[in-house]
Amino acid sequence: MKAVSPPRTGLCPASSAACQRDSGLSNHLPAGLRHGSPRHGHMRPSSSSLNRHRMQAGNRGPGRTDSEIGSLLESGEMGVSPKAGGQPSAGAATGIRPELVAVSIVYLVQGLLGLSRLAVFVHFKDDLGLDPAAVAFYTSLSYLPWMIKPLYGFLSDTVPLFGYRRRSYLVLCGLLNCVCWLALAWTSPGVWATVTLLVLGSFSTACADVVADSIVVQLCRGEAQSKAGSLQSLCWGSAAAGSVASAYFSGSLVHDHGPRTVFAVTALFPLLVSAAAAAIPEPRVLPEGKQTLAQAQESAAVQARALWAAVRHPAIYLPTLFVFSWQATPTVETVMTFFQTKQLGFSTEYLGQIRLVGALASLAGVGVYNYGLKATPLRTIFLWTALLGTGLGFTQLILITGTNLRFGISNEVFALADTTLLTVLGQVSFMPVLVLASRLCPEGVEATLFATLMSVLNAGGFTGQALGSALTTVFGVTSDDFGHLPQLVTFVTLCTLAPLPLLRLIPPASTLAAAEEHGRKDG
């Protein structure tokens, strides 16, 4: 929904991703919109929803050939035309259907997993005694499962488990995620044991995210940008609601009971994903729930050809290059959190309050985009959010230098206000990324290609986190020495402008409009 995701809580990109949706460590916002503010919104990595009359993932037929997909992309359709007699339109998603409720629960849980984000930070900083650069590096490793999301999408599209392509994956992912959090709560893991459990949990969240993401693109196909934006907003709103709920309790729980108790409580949330899977009215792929090796190989070959035909086309890989650069700018939010706790004396409880404000602001950002900007050309949104984000990113210098105190503004009030502005703008800047990705997916490889695009986004988030960790070391900023923090923040904020020359890689509004018109005629 980096999501990111970012990873999106201690376990995935997204989110504050990847992410993000606040599913974990991933942050899908440009660096200028991330500095010093808590991760929110997982990161997914990505956000989507489902409202099909019946799941037909295992019954698509042979799919399109390379030349067919290429011609569709060349015509500007880019896979947005619905199959004849095909899927329900996005407008059908407004009804209350069990599939839609189930997928919304998946994203809600990604937001609820944000309860652990602060606990993971405290565990690394206090229990394991790591410095800012090390914390940034180890947490960035949780991006790794989000960088191979195409594998999960490929498996979901081609290899049914127990006769199902969606439900069985959700059940297993929820159970694995629960076990990882319980292990963190009941044992005393060292650095690498902690990282391993976080990566495994991130894997389970990313896999469940792919299952949900695989279906929104079927609704977005053939619909106008505004309707596609409404679908993304609905799902991101579910994740943001979960983030608000978790943020309300995160600071006080860590402050009063410590990280382990928070990990134990967090372990309960993934079970909701397993339970929600039962609500998806998905027919068995085969009556007896079995698939021969030849059938599996043929299905995999069809998926691979369709995916390769799509990703090698300029209409897809050029916008993807921009999305990567948009996410790959360095971030120093881990350092800023250290600064807030050690230099400014913010308690974990107050950090939780800041995170709550960030979650509410993220929800407000979804509303701003959905009700005011979803019909605005994507290039325009990217340009202005980057420019405004760079300007607002420099407000971190006011807090670092203490300039706010000269005007009678306390550090606590300034941090809250700064978080609100950066988060709203950051959320507005990320929603178009999701809309663009969902509209680039040809029919028949929705899960795999959308997962590929989100993996590129999360790879950018990992790159930005790793660059931030390296720059922290280069500038000599440690947990006890923040003397060069102003220079570090200045450099990183200016990096936000670096992707702007690549804006021309985004398909112009006329191309997307032609695709939408073509889709309507086919429907």
TrEMBL record:
Transmembrane annotation, as ranges: 100-124, 130-148, 169-186, 192-212, 315-338, 350-369, 381-401, 413-437, 449-468, 488-506
Protein source organism: Auxenochlorella protothecoides (Green microalga)
Annotated GO CC locations: membrane
The keyword Transmembrane belongs to this UniProt entry's keyword annotation: yes
Annotated stretches, region: Disordered: 1-70
Membrane-topology descriptor: Multi-pass membrane protein
Keyword list, A-Z: Membrane, Transmembrane, Transmembrane helix, Transport
Compartmental location: Membrane
Record family assignment: Belongs to the major facilitator superfamily. Folate-biopterin transporter (TC 2.A.71) family.
Protein name (database record): Folate-biopterin transporter 1, chloroplastic
